[in-house]
Amino acid sequence: MSFTVIIALARDVFIVLALGFVVFWIYRTGGDRVRLADLKIVQDQLTHNTQLEAGWKTEIVAAEIRREQEESELSARIDAQRAPVRLCRSPSPSPVSNPTAPAEGSHSAGGSVDRGPGKDLRPDINAFELKYENALSDCRAALASWPTAK
Predict the structure, then answer these.
(1) The pLDDT value given to residue 110
(2) What is the torsional sign of CA 24, 26, 30, 34?
(3) Domain residues for 43?
(4) H/E element holding 95?
(5) Is the pTM of this model over 0.70?
(6) CA distance 74 to 134
(7) Which residues of the chain, if any, have pLDDT below 70?
């Protein structure tokens, strides 16, 4: 073997070793490394998330219970409203004029016809109030069950 062949072989071995070292170094530093400190941080975050979710679930349950109580109280209050609400019709003028009262002090007959007490609107008002109060109760429950950041 000549001296130039030995130098060329040494140079080729050096290049192959350097290339191998670079590949190994890239592989080693580019890999995903998990450190114990990182695991501890992840476990703490998971514990915190679990506590937040448990708190949110209790808030949701409490909001649902409040909504059911509001709806039952509302239904009882609306059902207790029994006083009629009447829509009275205004008396229409009669085509016949009122006769004058005689001198002996008796009353004159009315010229209009009594049309009765009118329609009772209480059931319609109660249904309207119940419908929209239930909708508002649902809205309040949705807002109350919204997760709050702590």
Answers:
(1) 53
(2) positive
(3) 38-83+118-150
(4) none
(5) no
(6) 8
(7) 31-32, 87-118, 149-150
How big, in percent rounded to 5, are the helix, strand and coil portions of the chain?
A: 65, 5, 35
Structure tokens at 42: 């992840």
Residue 37 has a pLDDT of: 84
- Cα separation, 113 vs 96, in Å, equals 11
- Segment 30-68, tens digit of pLDDT: 766 777 888 899 999 999 999 999 999 998 999 889 989
- Whether 133 is covered by a domain: the verdict is yes
Structure tokens at 78: 């609306």
The total number of structural domains that make up the chain: 1
Contact 127, 46 (CB under 8 A): no
Give first-to-last CA distance, the chain, whole Å: 79
Residue 33 has phi, psi (to 5 degrees) of -110, 135
Residue 57 maps to a domain: yes
Provide the token pair at 117: 């007490």
Give me the phi and psi of 119, to 5 degrees please: -90, 140
* pLDDT of res. 78: 83
> Is position 6 within any domain?
no
Residue 140 is assigned to a structural domain of this protein: yes
